[in-house]
Amino acid sequence: MNEQKRQNFQKIVWQWYRLHTPALPWRNTKNPYHIFVSEVMLQQTQIPRVLVKYPEFLKIFPTIKALAKAPLRRVLSVWHGMGYNRRGLYLLQSAQYIMEKYAGTIPKDIDTLKALPGIGHYSARAIACFAYGVCEPFIETNIRRVIIHEFFPKKKQVDDKDVLKVLTAVEPAQKTQEWYWALMDYGREALRHTPNANRKSKHYAKQSRFESSPRYVRAKIISYLLENKKATVEELRASLRTDGHLKHLSLQAVKNILAGLEKEKLVTKTELFFGIA
Predict the structure, then answer these.
(1) Helix, strand, coil % in the chain, rounded to nearest 5
(2) Does 39 qualify as catalytic in the annotation?
(3) Of the residues 39, 100, 211, 234, which is catalytic?
(4) What is the rounded CA–CA span in Å between residue 270 and residue 247?
(5) pTM of the full predicted structure?
C-alpha cells in the first residue's frame, strides 16, 4: 500500500475520532470481566440498549464469580430486553468455565477465548485487544464498512481476507486499542449517511424480518416462561397466538422451536411442562 495513502487514511480517522469520541463506560475500564460482558452484549445489539443494560447487569453480577453462581433464570431475567437470549446463556456458561479452568481470570489468548461458548473470531480478538492490549486485525460490521468504503469503492463481492490485509497495512504501531475504537465509531457514525458499503461484501446477508420469525417466537417463549415459570406446549401456543404476528402459528411449529430451545439448554421439560433450564 502507498505510504501516503496509509497516512492520509489514519489522519482522517484519527481527526474524526478526536472530535467525536463517544462516552462509553466499557471503554473507561481495564476490568477484563466488564469488557468481556460488554463485548457479548454488543454482539448484534445497538449501543443505546447496551448503555442501559450494561450497568444493570454489572450491578447484579459485579464479578465473574457472582455470575458463575447465578441460576439461568436469574441471568435471563436480567438479560431480558437485549434479544438473542442464548447470549445470556453463553455468558453464564463462559463464566462457569472460566471459574473452573482459569480461577476466574479472563483468558488473554485468542484461541482460548474462541473456545468459550458464543465467542467467535471477532469477539475473541476484541476482548484480547480491549482487555489486555493484545491487538491484531479483526473485523466487525462497522470496521468492514470503513475499509470497503475507503479502499474498495468500485469492487463487488469484497472478501474479508482482503479487508484483513488492508487492516494489517493501515494499523498504527501505537494506540492500537484506540485505533479499533476509532474505526468502529467512524464506520458507525461518520459514514451513517453514505450508502452502506457492507452490501458490497462477499459475506453480506440481509437480515430477515424479525416479527413472526423463529427468533421472535423464541423470545416470546422465554419471556412467557420467565413470567409464568412453567407451561405446557398448548398453553404456550395459546399465549403466542394472542400476538397479531403469530395468530396462525401451528402447534408443530411451537414444538419445533421448543425442541431447539431444549437442545440449546435454555429450557427443560418435566413431564408435560416446559420451564427455564
Answers:
(1) 60, 5, 35
(2) yes
(3) 39
(4) 27
(5) 0.91
Q: Is 165 in the same domain as 36? A: no
Pair 117, 156 in one domain: no
DSSP state of 140: -
Distance (Å, whole) CA 75 – CA 72: 5
Q: How far is CA 18 from CA 12, 48, 147, 179, 182, in A?
A: 10, 21, 19, 11, 9
* 181 and 232, same domain (yes or no): no
Nearest to 198 by CA among 137, 161, 138, 152: 152
Q: Which residues pair with 231 in a beta bridge?
A: 274
- The strand pairing partners of 201, in sequence order, are 158
44 Rama class: left (phi>0) / alpha (psi -120 to 50) / beta? left
- The grid coordinates listed for 221 are 417463549
| Residue 102: all three cell numbers together | 482459569
Strands, E assignment, the chain: 230-231, 267-270, 273-276
Tell me 273's DSSP state: E
**Full domain range(s) for residue 247:** 214-276
Contacting residues for 150 by C-beta, under 8 A, at least 6 apart: 9
Report d(CA 230, CA 273) in Å as an integer.
6
- Report d(CA 17, CA 23) in Å as an integer: 12
Same-domain pairing of 100 and 233: no
Q: pLDDT under 70 in the chain at which residues?
A: none
Query: Could you report the per-residue pLDDT of 198-246, keeping only the tens digit for each?
Result: 999 999 887 777 777 899 999 999 999 999 999 999 999 999 999 998 9
Q: How many CB atoms lie within 10 A of CB 180?
A: 21
Q: For residue 172, how many other CB atoms are within 10 A of its CB?
A: 14
Distance between first and last Cα of the chain: 53
